[in-house]
């Protein structure tokens, strides 16, 4: 079930965007992501870098998790596979949640390429598939995701601390990293929902879910 | 010193395995430098981070097994655990 796709243009060249994409956590836009690990990494015969990363995400409301899932575990995990082709200037990422799949399955694909008309800009095309089995859940979830994305987009102009800077990470890089997060990591964003939206979402979702990978 | 601020910037992220966090940060620093200065500029040969990565990987593999995180298609996963389909 295809729920959401979008295209976004960043006002930075492709190299800058890719470097930021590799470093986008920690990120004040989503403090739920508390760990990032690289599980596999290699360069193939065509010179492309393949990586498998694990994102450790803490649920926003531990008490709520226990109430719904009957477990004390508050960590959930997202697996992200990526391929960076420096010659073609293309980065593709595929991510999916590994846990909570009995509630919801979010599979997401992102492709970053240089803007065809302006080398100083980068195009991101993004698709996210949310799979839930239940009555009327698709449209409810879709509404929730659209609201979340819209409210994130409004926050884009708020001043946020840039964090420590260095020759390798300027304030401009930090802002770009936050921008990247507005347009990716759908599942981690879902966990970042606050209060009633999250409770409403969980209350409706005690169904068996078929995990289907989009990647 | 610039490298210390860069280290501080990378330092805030943890590893899934608490014992692996220092190794992770050291590896990340090495990788980010190689990625930006060599790989993206067309020189993908000679990855200087392989030793750091091996040690870090061993630590993370152990943590993943202990926490029973269901990674798909990962070579080092010895047990072919099926994803449980449980209700609720």
Automatic annotation (TrEMBL), chain A:
Specify the PRELI/MSF1 domain's residue ranges: 1-172
Q: Which GO terms describe its cellular component?
A: mitochondrial intermembrane space
**Where are the coiled-coil regions?**
none
Q: Which Pfam families match?
A: PRELI (PF04707)
Name of the protein in its database record: PRELI domain containing protein 3A isoform X5
Tell me what organism the protein belongs to: Camelus ferus
Identify the gene encoding this protein.
PRELID3A
From TrEMBL, chain B:
Q: Name one GO biological process term.
A: phospholipid translocation
GO molecular function of the protein, one example? Answer: phosphatidic acid transfer activity
Q: Does the keyword Disulfide bond apply?
A: yes
Q: Which residues form a coiled coil?
A: none
> Which reactions fall under this protein's catalytic activity?
a 1,2-diacyl-sn-glycero-3-phosphate(in) = a 1,2-diacyl-sn-glycero-3-phosphate(out)
Which InterPro entries does this chain map to?
MDM35_apoptosis (IPR007918)
Taxonomically, the superkingdom here is Eukaryota
**What's one GO-annotated cellular component?**
mitochondrial intermembrane space
Keywords, comma-separated and alphabetical: Disulfide bond
Family, per entry: Belongs to the TRIAP1/MDM35 family.
Q: What PANTHER family has UniProt attached to this entry?
A: TP53-REGULATED INHIBITOR OF APOPTOSIS 1
Q: What is this protein called?
A: TP53-regulated inhibitor of apoptosis 1
């Amino acid at each position: 079930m295809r729920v959401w796709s979008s295209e976004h243009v960043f006002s930075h060249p492709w190299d800058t965007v890719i470097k930021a994409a590799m470093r986008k956590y920690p990120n004040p836009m989503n403090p739920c992501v508390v760990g990032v690990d690289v599980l596999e990494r290699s360069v193939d015969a065509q010179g492309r870098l393949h990586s498998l990363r694990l994102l450790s995400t803490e649920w926003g409301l531990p008490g709520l998790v226990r109430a719904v899932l009957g477990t004390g575990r508050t960590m959930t995990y997202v697996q992200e596979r990526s391929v960076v082709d420096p010659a073609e200037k293309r980065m593709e990422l595929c991510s999916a949640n590994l846990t909570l799949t009995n509630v919801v399955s979010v599979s997401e694909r992102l492709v970053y390429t240089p803007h065809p008309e302006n080398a100083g800009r980068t195009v991101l095309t993004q698709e996210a598939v949310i799979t839930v089995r239940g009555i009327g859940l698709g449209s409810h979830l879709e509404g929730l995701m659209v609201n979340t994305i819209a409210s994130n987009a409004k926050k884009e102009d708020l001043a946020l601390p840039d964090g420590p800077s260095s020759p390798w990470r300027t304030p401009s890089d930090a802002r770009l990293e936050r921008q990247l997060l507005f347009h990716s990591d759908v599942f981690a964003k879902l966990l970042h929902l606050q209060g009633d939206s999250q409770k409403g979402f969980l209350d409706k979702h005690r169904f068996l879910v078929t995990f289907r990978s989009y990647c | 010193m610039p490298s210390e601020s860069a280290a501080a910037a990378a330092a805030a992220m943890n590893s899934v395995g608490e014992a692996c966090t220092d190794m992770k940060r050291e590896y990340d620093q090495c990788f980010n430098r190689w990625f930006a200065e060599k790989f993206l500029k067309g020189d993908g040969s000679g990855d200087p981070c392989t030793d750091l990565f091996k040690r870090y990987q061993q630590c993370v593999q152990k943590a993943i097994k202990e926490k029973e995180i269901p990674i798909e298609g990962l070579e080092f996963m010895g047990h072919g655990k099926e994803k449980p389909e449980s209700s609720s």
